[in-house]
Queue: 2 jobs
Job 1
Amino acid sequence: MTRALEKYIRPGVKSTPFCPGCGHGILMGLILRAIDDLKMEMKKMLFVSGIGCAAWIPSPHYNGDTLHTLHGRAIAFATGAKLYNPDLCVMVVSGDGDLSSIGGNHLIHAARRNIDLKVICANNMIYGMTGGQVASTTPKGSRTSTTGEGNPYRPFDLCKLVEGAGATYVARFSVTQPILLIQSIKKAILHKGFSFIDVLSPCPTQYGRRNRLDRPDEMMKDLIRRCILEEEIEGLTEEERAEKIITGEFLS
Amino acid sequence: MPSKWVKTPFPKGRYYFSGNEAAAEGAIAAGCRFYAGYPITPSSELMERMAVRLQEVGGVFIQMEDEIASISAVIGASWAGAKAMTATSGPGFSLMQESIGYAAFTETPCVIIDVQRAGPCTGQATKVGSGDIMQAKWGSHGDYQVIALSPWSSQEMYDLTLRAFNLSETYRVPTMVMADEAIGHLRETIQIPSRVEIFDRMKRKGRAPFDSEEEDGVPPMPSFGEGERLAVTGSTHDGFGFRKTDDPQVHARLVSRINKKILNHRRTIIETEDYLIEDAEIALITYGFTARTSLYVVKRLRKEDWKIGMLRLKTLWPFPDEAVAQLGKRVRKILVPEMNLGQVAGEVRKYVPCDVHSLTQTNGEVIRPDVLIETLRRM
Ligand SMILES: Cc1ncc(C[n+]2csc(CCOP(=O)(O)OP(=O)(O)O)c2C)c(N)n1
Ligand SMILES: [Mg+2]
């Protein structure tokens, strides 16, 4: 993170807690760039997170109000704060396990209500903090600490899920697409209604090392290779398509 | 702690209210302006009245997707500056426990009304019970304190809900009103006063919101959006909310303070009422709906020249140790009648040297006077 963004960091914070190669630190910086571009007043920003590595992205690092809640409950806490004080710009930053598994019910209901929350899901496709167990976002076949033979179940497509539930801004980008992602976070902040961004964030420590991508740079390169925009799908064979991750703005 | 007298938003007078309706009106009078809840018998009328009343007074009402979401939204709203509450019954109270622990550890004022029904599990959903008394104190993991009050009338559903908000704001602690189905659905005349005394959370700019110089102090609590750049976390934290999950001293200090700030102030928190105990040799220790039956029985047996009295616990947690201990020194025998298998009787035994008998009933019905009298005659 550059010096110019230091004013957004809570005084007293010395370093980030993330492992080498973790995408959460990149996302931490990109959210602040979006906030800086929009000249948002940090005094009116409330960052809510659940429990997990991703929940530490805002808490306590960001120099606004931060509310580090319980595993899965970030959106429910955020709903109460936003409804009582609508002047707050409320952003939820949390993990895939937190938001879509244990907190899945709150996610779809907040989307249904189209409540004005900006939800950023740091999706590393795994339970990072607890040691790499399978998540509801883990790709079918992937090895995890609880699926040694490969995950037998298919993952959620979180964008389709929240779109179906009623979200009004929906996008997916990877931390390897920083310009597009900053753009998308800015749109989510300005959007009035439930916005959701599924942010792909590599976890070499817990996911990569069990899936032949142990080196941080390998996971980054893999994401760069696999993330394509919706308009780039055409002309790809079925086989080529299968391994791609479609990114872009799906609803805006 | 400074208080102020405010006009009640409902016209002064006598009203024929159910306990649930009275509790809602007590909450509005206390300044409650946020309610989140999920339907469950026998508490639903309370939520329905809050939906109407909050719209009238300009507050926020939301029916959430479940009870976990409800209490979580209440805590979020409390940090945004609201006096906030939810109401539920057994199954919903169970779901709320993790968040109640969060509120205790982050020192978040909030009020939870549990209109108890006959458990365990789904039990007898429409019938009365009083089986959540221990859960109110011990339901979440770890060592923490809450305040729990026990109303015995519609009037007290109003008065004690109001008091629950005042205590919750004063001590920054989740506060429970442990009602039961019989009290929630009981309709009787209550008096709504023209003015009530209100306590608000203390605010001090720049001061640590999670630490105090006194070992039992209650720190000031700012709200989101006030520029205090709050860091709130349910992990162990220092005075300004920085996570300190490896420091034994920070953890011990915080856990100790959130317990002492309630226990050391229990003399001002606890309320009990004595009935005819001056010359009593036998005493009933009672609470909630059962206290009504008990008082009737005490008066009836007095006519037969029994030396019998009664102590009513209006506060259940922190437990009225002193009042119980004093009574235990004066009487020969104590009977604790309750609609559970002896949850408060067990507590009473910790503080008294005399005989403690326990009348337990878990059949979904209130304890009848003849059952109580029969038990006393056999004692
Ligand atoms: C009720 C509850 N169950 C389980 C846990 C243990 N737990 C802590 S973090 C976590 C997973 C977090 O995964 P995710 O949200 O994807 O975040 P990541 O660490 O991968 O960034 C779990 C299961 C908990 N804290 N609370
Ligand atoms: Mg994860």
Note: The first strand of chain A starts at residue 45 and ends at 49.
Job 2
Amino acid sequence: MEVAYYPGCTLKTHAKEFEKAALKAYRAIGIELKELDKWYCCGTVYSLAKDNIMYKVASVRNILNAQKEGFDCLIVLCSMCYNTLKQAQEFIKDESNLARIKAFMDEEEYKGIEILHGLELLKDKMEEIKKAVKKPLNRKYAAYYGCTLLRPKSVAIDSYEKPSIMERLIEALGGIAVEWPLKNECCGSYNIITNKEIVVERVRHIIENARQRGAEAIVTSCPLCYFNLKECQKDVKRIYPGFEEMPLYYYTELMNEAFNGKFDKGENNNGS
Amino acid sequence: MSYYHIEEEENELLAKVEEISGEIVTLCEQCGICTTSCPMADEMDFTPAGIMHAVKIGDKAVLDSKAIWICASCFTCTVRCPRGIDLAKVTEALRQIHLRKNKDHINLEEVKEEELEEDLPPIAIVSALRKFTG
Ligand code: SF4
Ligand code: SF4
């Protein structure tokens, strides 16, 4: 099965290993992720001002473009891109909103397209996933959803208060998924630029909670959560010398580890 | 700070926030669920419910708060508000009031320095620019 795929800027630069692992892992269960011929930065955050149409234009252009390339469903792997594109898609479901946006672009008619996160695609592929496992994972993992896969409600890929899709994936791969309350709490997001000390405290809180629940590693699909958790753990360690860093993985990396029997980190591993 | 209350008709702040956000701030019943749900509340000078209250009574001090810039638009308050108010849109409106006057909250030069130092992912830089510059 071939599906259209939107990478976004970060999977092409900072989080190359996420994309690399994804292409390989999805192929192993019979899904070919076909990158759109043409795509633009989605804007990373959806504009929340009612009167600001300009910031929504880039997202809508991406959606129309996927349609133009002949697709009726678009897969996104980066959680932030997913959230932004999905909210834009929700926005243009309303005819009058679509008309306002279309004033900025003279393109073909919008027929409606589905936007799915890569994890949603795995929901009914658990049997295929189990079959593809060569060496079951044998550690305890905390699935970290953060914000953008779950909120606002209109974009939630699963129950927005109690998601379980990543846990089901971890278990299908042979790992143990721990239950923990902070799995859908914010890591501080773009505060990393302006208020890093806040993010450092958030990260300490999140990691300690995962550890207390028995986790040995964190699994995510958001490159910003990944970066914040990874980088800020170093700062936590400087402030609290007894703190032990916990490894982080993109969910696609875990899939490959179980499918290939060895862990293969991409070329770019964020300087760690 | 003295407590004051501006009648709704002359509450400029309320009118502006409602216009930009599209939310009806006066629906807030001050239950505090947003504050108890907010992961950033401990770091804020106005709690999320405090922000709502300030807008409701027209207290412009909220415009100078740190809280409106600390809010990470995580939508936790949004999904939990029993009155269905999207508080994330309210803080966005308060930020927009500054940004539309061409008063940026960060400056590009500083971001660049940090970027080199820490190898920040593009989504971090672009989202901060979207949230903190006009
Ligand atoms: S949760 Fe809603 S109603 Fe309650 S204080 Fe917050 S904004 Fe007001
Ligand atoms: S959207 Fe802002 S105010 Fe609401 S819970 Fe998140 S950080 Fe707090």
Note: Residues 125-260 of chain A form a domain with the Rossmann fold fold (CATH 3.40.50.11810).
